[in-house]
């Protein structure tokens, strides 16, 4: 009888929090001043913080109930549109883990992304000898197959991510070089498997105090090995955070390649070297303008065969000055690094290096000498049918697939 009783307690606690929210709202409205008031603003901030803390405690309590006795949840590492990431301990071993909770049926795309991430992480765990991809340790689905609402993905725990590191301190050249090398080591088996990550950015690069780096978040990834159709539907879903988005994506190319990830690697290296994003556009239009300000409009003509004619015409009309050289942008950076940037952050995807060429570049020689590169077996396209369905099929199919995958998952 304990689980139903606990479930009832959880529901009751949520109802109490919601009642308290209404009470707070009424109290705030009654005490709202007619004009500016510092005391009112302070009071409002205090109420907001109290609500936030109550909900954090409730989220931890609910997660403890959902995932059972194997793990002890003791904190929240982060929250976002993807869900909530908890900090937890494996009770038997004392190993620290990160537990990502996703509610896949809140939006039609979330179910696809959750299933995609689960299957890709499992594929790389079982088919790639790579230390630079986050390792999936366990999958927990509380409830019954027909009614479950949440999925918990248990992963390795890392200290922080590259985004937070870059916001807190400048990196030395050696650190930037070593991190870039590890990004490439993680990206190689991903590309070898016939997968595009499509969202390489500092916040998806987890790091620890020993400077180990691991690529995470495969929810926006796509497979390239569809046996029955062309890849013309690859751009049916939002991809890549704007600042790290390759120009062919921004210009509505429907035939982009692994080169989109290489562009993101180059943008990330620039940010590690300077502490500032290379193209921090506030919106779509400014993003394109920032790229044009560096390269001019002429290089975009190479995208004519694959990109929207309307988008290219828009680029041609943008005002721009003389194209900048990498030496002008980074006068204190050595020529090897500038060459690496020029061959990764290039408008024409054909001019960008492959991940193998990046690893063989002289910039990586210090770390990449006699080491055998990690690789991975190609993914089975039948396992990623949802990457080629248009329009998306019903969420119930994804529900059953998620359930079956979780039941079949074997924790190491």
TrEMBL record:
<dbReference type="GO" id="GO:0004707">
    <property type="term" value="F:MAP kinase activity"/>
</dbReference>
<dbReference type="InterPro" id="IPR008350">
    <property type="entry name" value="MAPK_ERK3/4"/>
</dbReference>
<keyword id="KW-0067">ATP-binding</keyword>
<dbReference type="InterPro" id="IPR050117">
    <property type="entry name" value="MAPK"/>
</dbReference>
<keyword id="KW-0460">Magnesium</keyword>
<keyword id="KW-0418">Kinase</keyword>
<keyword id="KW-0723">Serine/threonine-protein kinase</keyword>
<dbReference type="InterPro" id="IPR000719">
    <property type="entry name" value="Prot_kinase_dom"/>
</dbReference>
<dbReference type="Pfam" id="PF00069">
    <property type="entry name" value="Pkinase"/>
</dbReference>
<keyword id="KW-0131">Cell cycle</keyword>
<feature type="domain" description="Protein kinase">
    <location>
        <begin position="71"/>
        <end position="364"/>
    </location>
</feature>
<dbReference type="InterPro" id="IPR017441">
    <property type="entry name" value="Protein_kinase_ATP_BS"/>
</dbReference>
<dbReference type="GO" id="GO:0005524">
    <property type="term" value="F:ATP binding"/>
</dbReference>
<dbReference type="InterPro" id="IPR011009">
    <property type="entry name" value="Kinase-like_dom_sf"/>
</dbReference>
<keyword id="KW-0597">Phosphoprotein</keyword>
<protein>
    <recommendedName>
        <fullName>Mitogen-activated protein kinase</fullName>
        <ecNumber>2.7.11.24</ecNumber>
    </recommendedName>
</protein>
<feature type="binding site">
    <location>
        <position position="100"/>
    </location>
    <ligand>
        <name>ATP</name>
    </ligand>
</feature>
<keyword id="KW-0808">Transferase</keyword>
<dbReference type="InterPro" id="IPR003527">
    <property type="entry name" value="MAP_kinase_CS"/>
</dbReference>
<keyword id="KW-0547">Nucleotide-binding</keyword>
<dbReference type="InterPro" id="IPR008271">
    <property type="entry name" value="Ser/Thr_kinase_AS"/>
</dbReference>
<comment type="similarity">
    <text>Belongs to the protein kinase superfamily. Ser/Thr protein kinase family. MAP kinase subfamily.</text>
</comment>
């Amino acid at each position: 009888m304990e689980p139903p009783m606990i479930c009832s307690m959880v529901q009751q606690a949520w109802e109490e929090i919601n009642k308290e929210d209404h009470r707070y709202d009424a109290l705030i409205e009654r005490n709202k001043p007619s004009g500016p008031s510092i005391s009112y603003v302070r009071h409002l901030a205090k109420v907001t913080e109290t609500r936030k803390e109550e909900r954090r405690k409730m989220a931890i309590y609910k997660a403890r109930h959902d995932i059972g006795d194997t793990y002890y949840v003791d904190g929240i590492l982060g929250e976002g549109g993807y869900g909530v990431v908890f900090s937890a301990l494996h009770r038997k071993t004392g190993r620290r883990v990160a537990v990502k909770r996703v509610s896949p049926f809140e939006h039609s795309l979330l179910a696809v992304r959750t299933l995609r991430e689960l299957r890709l992480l499992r594929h790389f765990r079982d088919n790639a000898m790579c230390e630079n991809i986050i390792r999936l340790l366990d999958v927990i689905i509380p409830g019954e197959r027909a009614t479950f609402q949440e999925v918990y993905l248990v992963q390795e725990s890392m200290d922080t991510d590259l985004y937070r590191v870059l916001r807190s301190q400048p990196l030395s050249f050696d650190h930037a070089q070593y991190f870039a090398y590890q990004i490439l080591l993680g990206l190689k088996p991903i590309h070898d498997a016939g997968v595009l990550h499509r969202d390489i950015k500092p916040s998806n690069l987890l790091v620890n105090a020993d400077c180990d780096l691991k690529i995470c978040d495969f929810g926006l990834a796509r497979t390239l090995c569809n046996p029955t159709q062309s890849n013309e539907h690859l751009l049916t879903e939002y991809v890549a955070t704007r600042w790290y988005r390759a120009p062919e994506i921004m210009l509505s190319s429907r035939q982009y390649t692994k080169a989109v990830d290489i562009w993101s690697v180059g943008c990330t290296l620039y940010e590690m070297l300077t502490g500032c994003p290379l193209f921090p556009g506030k919106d779509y239009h400014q993003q394109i303008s920032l790229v044009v300000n560096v390269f001019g409009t002429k290089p975009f003509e190479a995208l004519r065969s694959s990109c929207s004619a309307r988008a290219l015409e828009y680029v041609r009309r943008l005002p721009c000055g003389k194209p900048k050289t990498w030496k002008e942008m980074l006068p204190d950076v050595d020529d090897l690094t500038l060459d690496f940037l020029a061959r990764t952050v290039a408008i024409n995807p054909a001019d960008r290096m492959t991940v193998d060429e990046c690893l063989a570049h002289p910039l990586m020689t210090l770390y990449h000498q006699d080491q055998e590169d990690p690789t991975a077996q190609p993914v089975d396209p039948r396992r990623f049918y949802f990457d080629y369905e248009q329009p998306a099929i019903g969420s119930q199919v994804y529900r059953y697939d998620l359930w079956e995958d979780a039941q079949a998952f074997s924790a190491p």
